[in-house]
Fold each of these.
Amino acid sequence: MRITFLTIFPASFSSFPSCPVISRAVEKGIISFDVVDIREYADGCFRAVDDSPYGGGAGLLLRADTLTKALEDVKTGRSRTILLGPKGKKFTQTMAHELAGEKHIILVAGHYEGVDERFRSHIDDEISIGDYILTGGESAAMIVAEAVTRLLDGALRGSSAKEESFEDGILEYPQYTHPAVFEGKAVPEVLMSGDRKRIAYFNETEALKDTIRLRPDLLSNDRDFSCCSLHKDYGNEADIIRWIKERLPVPEILYEDETYLILSKKKGKSLKDCTKNRILKTCAAILKAFWAMDVSDCPCCESIEVAISKMKERKLSYAEWNMLQKLEGNTGLNEDRVFSHGNLKLDNIIVNGNGLLMLTGMQKAGTADRYRDLALLIPSLEEAGIRKEELFSLLGLEPDEEKIEFFGNLNSLLSG
């Protein structure tokens, strides 16, 4: 790879190639750097690269004609041109990986008040390293170049880049070295146990804890990791897991705060990957187990009234509001409340060779009409080639089509 810096202050880059990782990558021929002085392309004896903005305003702008001359002189058909400036997309590790696949990157260091707007038509992208203002883009260009360089094969020793902050969308786990005890604080025992499985489990859990505590903005969705799962708790899941764990196999709560849960995982497979016969029998057994529970002390209620009340608190489209009004006008259904999973799909049923291993995705669990789960499960069964009549036969029920339609529509609204 080749990286070219376009700048009006080339001396700013004098020490950059001497950084250990950078110099090693250069010595190995993994990457090369060029520093191009934009002033060399300026006209006139004063080589002016900037000028006052038309219409007035403080500061100076880099001229489009000079910048374009410099850029076009170093640009090839394989170049990716990037301006460093505050209007750009915020630089991330994902972007660093993307740029690491390029053959030639040209980084244009903005300066002063910025660049003439007309220059932007000559670049491919604009990148910002954060929501703050620097005197110039030289330091930002070096940050991008370093982040990209260390991702190139051979730039780092071993697998140093594989378990770092942001690589998996979260912060890196906390790490320790000698002494084993410092100011009365000991290194966690598990890290000195030599048990690689326990260490991996501990590290992943601690990394998620740090991310929840320090950078919750990185956690936008529920996610499965190697050893555990991260869930947003919408008010039900932690309470339900504590209530149901003696009755059915559910994840263990490894950590919880007001917003997130870290849950254990078990090695198994989704029920959707099993034979039709096993899918059918397992689903019927789970539903029967739900319906046989004493729910008098269940901590969460997901009745029709509660569900509609929750929907009214959300911003709804016209079509959603219209559907909600129709459902509300048909709430005279006789509710037969049992324990309800609330998201009973084949993906949330984990099994192994011995049977049911774990039920997951219980953020919306609570007491509700039994048709709430049936309406959720029927589409998953149909995708697996199983008719709803086969399930109802095992359950000893006659399908109530009115309830299937009602709860199908309600579930659709709640998941929208």
Amino acid sequence: MKKAGILTFILVCMGWGMSFGLDLPDSKLELEIQSLKTGGADMIGSQFTVDEDYDEFATEFDDGGIFDYEYKSPKKAFLYSLVVPGWGQMYTKSSIWKPLVMLGLEVGSWVGYISYHNKGNDLTDEYEAFADLHWIEGDRADSLDYSIDLDDPNYWDWYYTMINTENSGVPTTESLPEGRNQQYYEMIGKYSQFVGGWDDYWTVNAEFFDENGILFIGSVVNTPNRVKYNDLRGKANDKLDAANNFILVAMANHLISAFDAALAANRFNKRNSEESWLSVRTEMKKYSATEEMPIVRFTYHF
């Protein structure tokens, strides 16, 4: 449950981060279009014929605009690194160690996931084969005579006999699945209710049986085979859990890289705009080929 909660949190952060990326400052082209719309472009198009070489943004006192440098879009930077960690950092020309570290984490995470996932699957095959060999289920339909054949004991013979033995102490809270699925292999090792299926149970507890195969109270439930099985199963689960942790690391790396790239783009634009956080400048704003008006432009950097 803890890992599922962490995974859900990261996915929510990634979704919120993508919306953040889509709300970042507009691109150079978008800003120019917006300026054109608010600068009287409609009047120019409807009343005057403008020469092809005429630049509506040219000013008499022009000393360079905010976007005269190579603008880096925070949106692109965010999405680039969300797809491939480090890609956005390369786009924003961050220090070389950032994309190297983030790309290295990405590769390492997937290598670790594949390695531990394969080891976990191998151990899973091993403990399932061990259970198939040493945990003898028997036929549940033919075991209703409530007797145990000590020469060929199995789980269902033991179970039906024990639950009809007074004070046997055998729990009946769990129900064994019909097929040998993941739950089946978990239950036969986890619950003492299924101990009667382990083939060494009968040897370890031989002193507790009477001549009718009835087990006296006080028998050993942690047989060597059951202990070994649970050890194999625990190791397999540890490997699979480690593989899942590598996936969480990879997802976190994507998210952190994306936010860092968006912030790096903003820093790049502010650093290369050659203006302070607040600037004032005068311009002659042309509204047509024959009309212009002096204006004062205030620029504030967030």
Amino acid sequence: MTVNLSGDEMYQKLKTMLGDSVPDVELRYKSTLAVEINQLKKEKNAVILGHNYMEPALYHSVPDFTGDSLELSRMAARTDKDIIVFCGVRFMAETAKILSPTKTVLIPSPRAGCSLASSITAADVRALKQRFPGVPVVTYVNTYADVKAETDICCTSGNAVKVVESLGSTSVIFIPDEYLARNVARETGKHIIFPTPKAPRGAPDTDLDVVPLHADMIGWRGRCEVHEKYTVQDILDAREQYPDVVVLAHPECSPEVTAAADFAGSTAAMIRYVEQTSAPRYLLLTECSMGDNIAAANPDKEMVRMCSVRCPHMNEITLQDTLKSLQLTRYVVEVPEEIRVKAYRSVERMLAIG
């Protein structure tokens, strides 16, 4: 939990952690905002959640909990706070509401969306289920609530293989992340198809009605606009300059990238990897603020600063907007109860597996 610090104490904390990468005038301004936010959340009985992709000055100053989106929502649900402020994107705030229906959930910016979550709709899922009757649907938690409500079970990037294997089904629909699905298929030995490939609008989809009988995983061509940018060449370039670098990749990267990396895992798994190993230096192929946050929290670890990919949606969340969100109780996130209950069941089934 966040400790209440004075303005000078907050400034000194941020200066120590971020002084080499953030201008001093910015640290002084943001430390003032952070102190005001921490005081206000105490007055309003609020808890602030900070996803690993938040910008460093916010990440290291106001969240009571930091981490992966689902675990943050679970931690918030266990508190006695009346308000949850989710410093992350909208599908994350929706998950917090799914798990904490009686709490007020706020998101600091209404523009904090997600390219991956927006790649599929509830209608798309219903169409897939109609087309492949009886095939269980596994949905990545990086989706909106109405999509979760149409699924059989959710998964995270860390437990996706375990969830798929737990079903004991010869065929599985795995949505919406194309690369995560390909990585899971590779790890489980499944043959995957994508019966609804992206095509120019109005162009015929020749694969739409052709479903090979031997296919045992049906995917969807959604992608994270951050992780899809990383290439094998990025890894080769890094190794050429730093031969001893350890490369960590998120499972939303392409199978070629995860295969070329030294380690592939969720954001929490990558953090644990850096904390527990003693490699000479690390390169994280994920949202760049996360590398900055790990570097600030682990000054004894050398992070290779070759990352230039920021999530434009995560970047919408600022200290200024977080303060306004608390002051005005604005951008309340609601999930209709019928959808919430169905989505909760999908999440609960996953949690029962572990």
